[in-house]
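Late entry, written up from scratch paper. The run itself happened at the end of the previous shift, but nothing got recorded in the book at the time, so transcribing now.
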Amino acid sequence: MASGGSGKSASEGSTNIPSGSLQQRKRLSSICDTCKGKMQLVADLLLLASETRPVMSSDGVAVADTFDQCRDTVIARTKELSILTHDIQSQLNMGRFTDVGDRLLEMADLVVSLTEYSAHAAYLAAVETTGSQPCLPGLVDRYKVTRCRHEVEQSCGILRVTPLLDLTPQLLLELSQNISTNLKTLTDISSLASERSRDRFAKEQFKLSVKSMSTSGTAFLACVKEVKTQPSELTRNRCVFFSAALVQAVSALVGFATEPQFLGRAASISSEGKGVQTAVLGGAMSVVSACVLLTQGLRDVAQHPENSSKMADYRERLRNSACAVSDGCTLLTQALRERSSPRTLPPVNSHSVN
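Output as recorded:
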């Protein structure tokens, strides 16, 4: 995942920190923002959604065929997450901010995978109950296209706020590759929807939306290439200008693609099914919320010097968040094994990771 350096407060009051460390802290702060946004979005789409649907892979098939497969995968992910959480704390204690950032990116991807398999497990368990009806797939997978939009918006946002000196060739390469990958995914989904749609307007509108997005994307990526070879405020500003057009085109396409008539029919879940679903989703939400708090704690540490009067408090919060991750993993594992909630879940609003 691409990440850039931004955040004014990372350097304020940090005169005792070597310059290299300042750059590492800025990078870590930006990675924290990236990872937090990714985990929050996936949780909002899969754990807090009002509709029950299966989770599909990039190939258009379900991430798993059975509940047992999902359960075993999630349990394995919780073990990996526990190892990563400890590693992050160890690297931070040694002042290795670059390694912390790398591990945090791994953690975010792990949490996304854990969330996807948990949501799919909840769906499978719920539709197996008496009186439930499975989802009827539509032309578009809302989760996939919304995530693509988020990735494009986030990459363009990083470019807009990153100072020229921090726009390294490697960062620009990561940003352009991430944007290109997601534009291709949107193009493939929209093209297939156009082919399968029976509505004449929809067929043409999907094509026109792809054309608009493709044109904006080509113009934007040309600007990114130019700032890479001829870095200046002028070339950087061009990227900012054309990124706005790209984000708008992507937003328009996704807005159209996620209209109700293209999404199929969500599953109909019985009361018993909703109980099982709530237990699993609640367990997953506990993990995500704790990981978001851990990420916020890392950001606080990265943005303040070691001699800050608040540093001891920040590190204590970090340790508490790591403990919360472990507790959340235990809760999720128990919910999956028992297909019931090991505790009374608080209201949905208290789960919010925003």
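The chain has nine helices and no strands.
(Scratch paper discarded after transcription.)
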